[in-house]
Design brief:
Layout lengths: L2 H7 L8 E5 L3 E5 L2 E5 L1 H11 L3 E9 L2 H12 L7 E4 L5 E7 L5 E5 L12 H6 L5 E5 L6 H12 L6 E5 L9 H9 L3 E5 L2 H8 L8 H11 L4 E5 L5 E5 L3 E4 L12 H14 L4 H16 L10 H15 L6
Parallel strand pairs: 1-4, 1-8, 2-6, 4-5, 8-9, 9-10, 10-11
Antiparallel strand pairs: 2-3, 6-7, 11-12, 12-13
Helix pairs in contact: 2-9, 9-10, 10-11
């Protein structure tokens, strides 16, 4: 297949899209110190670095950590105009423990500011203009935020790409949240451990292989793309017509915080440009592996690093850069 020709023939020429990310913003309390994070923030950071116009929808407390979070967003060029300030709840935090492989486990404080997202007139005016919106399951643990996120999805345009990133943090998920979210998703992203849990909770039949799991999901829901990640062993991306497996990119791992979010942001950016799944897989693994090789979910990224990563994606399949 001529990937470059396929990309051009799909008629997507713009490289800058309007992408929203809604959900949790929190401080990851790592052994070496705190890092601003939360999957939507990590996603937004990479999406912005890929040249998109990004809007972050979240909430912080009226406290020192909230002020510090807003300052950090400015330092990484993420806009804070749609960041709400809660006077009822503190800024979110998560105690992070890393095992010998750099894999992270999280102890999340609750309730916090992002549990109380409010559906405002300002958010209502911005959402219909988005080309894509990213949302997850964790921020829907509270009824107020869940209702707001579902209203946001209902107010997106018919063309808006809705990316549902499953993020199972026990006990903060339920069958009803997963069911309603997948029903509204254009893209479903999850990891290999989350897949069988999701299958069971949404009532899909047991399957003997990941490929059959995916086929069952496509039969039950209307999404256009499913991405399953396997940590250091790469990922599988499937559309209704094609399926592609990537073996991953080996790097020395500093920690795995934010790697999946970088994967999803890169996948989304290239998907909006009309790239085929082979390129989506390469782009997601290139950015995800780079984040894994660094400390924290949003490591410093110079223009030189960004261009080097873009060239690697280009050279792997012969297509123009996303940045």
């Amino acid at each position: 297949m001529n990937y470059k020709l396929d990309f051009v023939n799909r008629g997507v020429n713009a490289s800058r899209f309007r992408i929203g990310a809604v959900g949790e913003i929190l401080w990851d309390l790592l052994p070496q110190g705190k890092q601003l994070g939360g999957a939507p923030v990590n996603f937004a950071c990479t999406a912005s670095r890929l040249g998109n116009e990004v809007t972050l929808f979240s909430s912080v407390g009226d406290d020192y950590l909230g002020a510090e979070a807003r300052h950090r967003l400015k330092s990484i060029a993420l806009p804070e105009e749609q960041l709400q300030v809660s006077r009822n709840y503190p800024t979110g935090t998560a105690e992070v423990e890393l095992n010998a492989n750099g894999d992270a486990s999280f102890n999340l404080r609750a309730p916090v500011a992002w549990d109380d997202l409010l559906w405002t007139g300002e958010w209502r005016s911005v959402v219909p203009c988005l080309d894509a919106i990213y949302f997850g399951s964790l921020c829907q643990r509270n009824e107020e935020s869940r209702r707001t996120i579902q209203q946001m999805l209902d107010h997106t345009s018919a063309e808006c790409v809705r990316i549902f990133d499953v993020n199972l943090r026990s006990p903060f998920y339920s069958a009803s949240v997963l069911q309603s979210s997948i029903e509204k998703a254009t893209i479903l992203k999850l990891n290999e451990n989350e897949l069988p849990i999701v299958m069971q909770l949404v009532g899909c039949s047991e399957a003997a292989s990941i490929e059959k799991h995916i086929a069952a999901l496509f039969n039950s829901f209307r999404m256009e793309l499913i991405a399953v990640t396997f940590g250091s062993h790469g990922s599988l991306i499937a559309s209704r017509e094609n399926i592609h497996r990537h073996g991953g990119i080996r790097v020395p791992v500093a920690d795995t915080v934010g790697t999946g979010d970088a994967f999803t942001a890169s996948l989304t950016s290239y998907y909006l440009r009309g790239a085929p799944i082979q390129i989506l897989n390469e782009a997601g693994n290139v950015w995800g592996s780079w984040v894994a090789s660094q400390t924290g979910a949003m490591p410093d990224c110079t223009t030189e690093i960004r261009d080097r990563l873009a060239r690697r994606i280009e050279e792997s399949v012969g297509m123009p850069s996303a940045v």
